[in-house]
Automatic annotation (TrEMBL):
This is Phosphoribosylglycinamide formyltransferase. It is an enzyme of class 2 (transferase). Gene3D superfamilies: Formyl transferase, N-terminal domain (3.40.50.170). GO terms for molecular function: phosphoribosylglycinamide formyltransferase activity. The record marks D145 as: Raises pKa of active site His. Catalyzes the transfer of a formyl group from 10-formyltetrahydrofolate to 5-phospho-ribosyl-glycinamide (GAR), producing 5-phospho-ribosyl-N-formylglycinamide (FGAR) and tetrahydrofolate. The gene is purN. Pathway: Purine metabolism; IMP biosynthesis via de novo pathway; N(2)-formyl-N(1)-(5-phospho-D-ribosyl)glycinamide from N(1)-(5-phospho-D-ribosyl)glycinamide (10-formyl THF route): step 1/1. Coiled coil: none annotated. The keyword Transferase applies. GO terms for cellular component: cytosol. It catalyses: N(1)-(5-phospho-beta-D-ribosyl)glycinamide + (6R)-10-formyltetrahydrofolate = N(2)-formyl-N(1)-(5-phospho-beta-D-ribosyl)glycinamide + (6S)-5,6,7,8-tetrahydrofolate + H(+). Keywords: Purine biosynthesis, Transferase. Its EC number is 2.1.2.2.
Length: 188
């Protein structure tokens, strides 16, 4: 399967997926390209190291969301992308992309959805002083971090956790879970 990964920032999940494609549980698949909406994102450096073609496409360069997503679709067609993996892509996917890739886009979110959707899932859980939070992997629909849930894993918030230690724990769980769940989804 030819995958596109969409990311906006650091790209630690991107890198884990790239490693697993190179030598691990995703080795029968290919990352055809990285789609990035932020020219300053560190994920671009990571993609260079793995020699993965990168397209930086910014909404501000297009008159509408539909036009922005049509520009992405063009690259996906060029790279023969069959499945899309969101890994820290901080935008809502519109119908222009959803229609041709229906049931073929998954996302990872750093909380136990439907709790704490949005951009700050870890911080929102931490501030709410809940005893546990976690990680969710789900199919993408028109909503913000909605769509059918594929897998979830809980993470306990210890009394001595800081936001930073909680972030570290969540990212560890993400890095363990995402490649395995993606491999399973692609096998199905
Ligand atoms: C991850 O924690 C991911 O779950 C989150 O962005 C982070 C990206 O980290 N996504 C969302 O919050 C989506 N709503 P990374 O760039 O190091 O992979």
């Amino acid at each position: 399967m030819r995958l596109a990964i969409f990311a906006s920032g650091n790209g630690s999940n991107f890198e884990v997926l790239a490693k697993e494609v190179a030598t691990g549980c995703l080795n029968s698949h290919r990352i055809a390209c990285l789609i990035c909406d932020n020219p300053k994102a560190y994920v671009i450096e990571r993609a260079k190291q793995y020699k993965i073609p990168t397209y930086v496409i910014q909404p501000k360069d297009y008159p509408s969301k539909a036009a922005y997503e049509r520009a992405i679709l063009e690259k996906l067609a060029q790279e023969k992308v069959e499945f899309i993996v969101l890994a820290g892509y901080m935008r809502i996917i519109g119908t222009t992309l959803l229609t041709p890739y229906s049931q073929k886009i998954i996302n990872i979110h750093p909380a136990l959805l439907p709790q704490f959707p949005g951009r700050q899932g870890i911080q929102d859980a931490f501030d709410s002083q809940v005893a546990e939070t976690g990680v969710t992997i789900h199919f993408v629909d028109q909503g913000i971090d909605t769509g059918p849930i594929i897998a979830q894993k809980k993470v306990k918030i210890a009394p001595n956790d800081t936001l930073e230690t909680l972030e570290t724990k969540i990212h560890q769980v993400e890095h363990d879970l995402y490649p395995k769940v993606l491999a399973q989804v692609l096998a199905d």
